[in-house]
Target: DUF1330 domain-containing protein
Amino acid sequence: MLTLIEDAFERFLNDDDGQPVVMLNLLRFQEDGGRERYAQYLAVATPIVARFGAEIVYVGNGLPALSAEPGQAWDAVALVRYPNRRAFADMAMDADYRDKAAPMREAALAEAVLQPLRTASS
Model:
């Protein structure tokens, strides 16, 4: 389940500089069909995300980690670029996303990390 850290999310929005933000999604799938359910989630989520000016930039499967502590290898990663932080927040609170896509994502994942990124020069 995606659990937003409330204080971090509030700071994330308050510090919005209007610049694009990329969300790094580190994904660990449920063992029984999680990968397939995540593909279904992407099919539903992609047009919703696009309504907020965002785009899924990359989705890739993880290979065995070359350097990691136990438990730090991920099944897949996804990069989603949003025009700004507010667009991400608006998408996350959108009824279609919340009611249709988010439950699919939750059912697909055993664990996930959502890490906002910005260009190093920003």
In short: The CA atoms of residues 23 and 116 lie 5 Å apart. The longest helix spans residues 34-51. The longest strand covers residues 21-29. The mean pLDDT is 92.
